[in-house]
Amino acid sequence: GKKQDLKGVSILITAGPTRELIDPVRYITNRSSGKMGYAIARVAKERGADVTLISGPTNLPRPEGIKFIQIETALEMFTKVKENFASNNIVIKAAAVADYRPKNIANQKIKKSDGDMHIELERNPDILAFLGEQKGDKILVGFAAETNDLTQNALTKLKKKNLDLIVANDVSQEGAGFNYDTNKVTIFSATKETNKLPLMSKLDVADKIIDEAVTLLKKE
Ligand code: PMT
Hints:
Elements: E1 10-15, E2 20-23, E3 26-28, H1 35-46, E4 50-55, E5 67-70, H2 74-85, E6 90-93, E7 100-102, E8 121-123, H3 127-133, E9 139-146, H4 150-160, E10 165-170, E11 182-183, E12 185-189, E13 194-196, E14 200-201, H5 202-219
Parallel strand pairs: 1-4, 1-6, 4-5, 6-9, 9-10
Antiparallel strand pairs: 2-3, 7-8, 10-12, 11-14, 12-13
Helix pairs in contact: 1-5
Keywords: Decarboxylase, Flavoprotein, FMN, Ligase, Lyase, Magnesium, Metal-binding, Multifunctional enzyme
EC number: 4.1.1.36, 6.3.2.5
Binding site for CTP: 99, 109, 125-128, 143, 157, 161
């Protein structure tokens, strides 16, 4: 077994994609499988933490011995994150939250016509930015999925969302990001440290992220 170094630490994790409904049979989503967030939940649990996992739709088995909350849309995730935020020491947001949702959800299946159709989208709340505004003494860890200008984009998000750490993955690289069992990330801290990790399993990445978050928590 693993060393039980997280006894008494509560960690809230989000994982997977969100689904933004168009009508009863259609939705907009993204390529997140949930693997990265579930790996963090599993490792945190194995190290003795109290774990809450808020998950979008995935095909993964539920990790055992944790509090598991299933959601579908970004708005549902927002509600559940707000409900569970206060009771946790560390929050890690690995979910790929949709930035936009259809402005209207049709009650019935939308019929096709001969012409084109348009779906109007409105902004979803930025859950992580909301948490950043009321962070208190919590350790807040975000992810950044980027295809270009990784460092610059990640550092901008770190600052804008008032995070302690941001885990940047270059999702254009083979073996990194969506759906792989491996990931290649660089962890940036608000205190200007950079930890560039090689390609490794998502479970090993999870250990590294938790190590850094717990080090920050113990400094407080
Ligand atoms: O699930 P896998 O297949 O294992 O893939 C893992 C992953 C690529 C999804 C994961 O490693 C990852 O990078 N997750 C974040 C993806 C993402 O949405 O990045 P972003 O740059 O759009 O968002 C930045 C951060 O803000 C993220 O922590 C995100 O959870 C959060 N966010 C974004 C939008 C929003 N409306 N609310 C948020 O909280």
